[in-house]
Amino acid sequence: MNFDEIPIINDIETDDDVREKLKELNQPIVLPNETNEDRKQRLINLLQDEEDEDMESDEEEEEFYTPGTPELQDIRLKILKYSLQKSNERLNNTKKLVKTFDNISYLKHRRAIIEHYKKFELYGSQTIPGNTRALGSVTFNPKCDSIAVGSWDGSISILDASTLEIKQSHRNFHTEKVTLDFGDILVSGGNEGTIILWNDSKPTPIKQAHSNRITSLKLHHLNYLLSTSFDQTWKFWDLTKQTEVCQQEGHSKEIFTSSLHPDGSIFTTSGLDGIIKIWDLRSGRLLTNLIGHSKPVYSLDWSNNGNYLASGSGDCSIKIWDFRQLNRSNEEIYTIPAHTKLVSDLKFSNDGNTLISSSYDECINIWSVNNWIKIKSLKGHNDKVMNIDINNEESSIISSGWERTIKLWKIE
């Protein structure tokens, strides 16, 4: 070994210097049959070991990342600009509300909302001809005139949102356990790991998008798509090019659910590890982990005001997280003992004033936001409620069940 590699050795000239340094390091000064040269070499080895440990510690503290492509950087800049515009709009709307806020008018408005949701009753029920398994996914389109239903037998059906009349059926595109999202186009994913884009009922498959079951799909307003899977990853897709932009790992177990922030900037994932992860799509960073549920998390949803995140778990509770407080505390602001069995799905209403939950206890519950008191419980399924959605007009709720029925709830 070259002594110059250890800078401090250059200051040690005599055996007395070596002995003094060994004493400082709390090492034996003299060993049996040790020569002066042996002693100096022992000191060099000790100093080298210390330097190696410091280097390993620095490497552990350094954040690991994989550099993205120029295309990904451009996409993140687009998302940044879009999210800033959306957040400014929300902020300006909030300022207007604050200026015109009147406590009496607010209380009347809250009472009117509660009375509105108390009027929801079962309007109709439908089964899918030929369907052989549970209906695991159901969603309105933005126009509120159609409903898409995904079955665990792999089929997809499109229904009229008013009459529940079946308008289209698609089979043999997925093997089983279909998940859906409905925006300007319909997207579906299945147990085999394929994503299909449905444009005017014409399927365009992205084959083997994941190596395992696709558990959630979220359409981004800028013509992107986010998908989660039992392969413990989530992926970001460019729908214009129908290509994968990036893949993200981080969960220790299967990812089951996700939610996209209304600004399009934050993507939230969770699943069988019970940990909620908050990802920043503008930078690709993991912002924080939310740990509070004692069992897997099966449902997530952001409120349209961008402040509240709701999570539903196998521990039968719903937890409410305030995004404005996550810098100070990663604790939930409220826990609702919501159901007697696992919470299968969550949806905030379009105006953000109510939260709707479904459960394996066969119930759909409607909650008042802010005080988190139950407004009403909708009962009509005779088995597990798998999935729910509320239309943008807040006039209809749709639910799907283990017993293979779709139920439409409206104001009587």
Give the structure's gist in a few sentences.
The protein is an alpha+beta fold. 20% of the residues lie in helices and 39% in strands. It contains 4 helices and 28 strands.
The number of helical elements comes to: 4
CATH architecture: 7 Propeller
Tertiary shape: elongated
The CATH topology is: Methylamine Dehydrogenase, Chain H
Low-confidence stretches: 1-8, 58-64
By CATH reckoning, the class would read Mainly Beta
How far apart are the first and last residues' alpha carbons, in Å? 88 Å
Number of domains: 1
The residue fraction in helices comes out at: 10-25%
Q: What portion of residues belong to β-strands?
A: 35-45%
Secondary-structure-based class equals alpha+beta
Q: How big is the Rg?
A: 28 Å
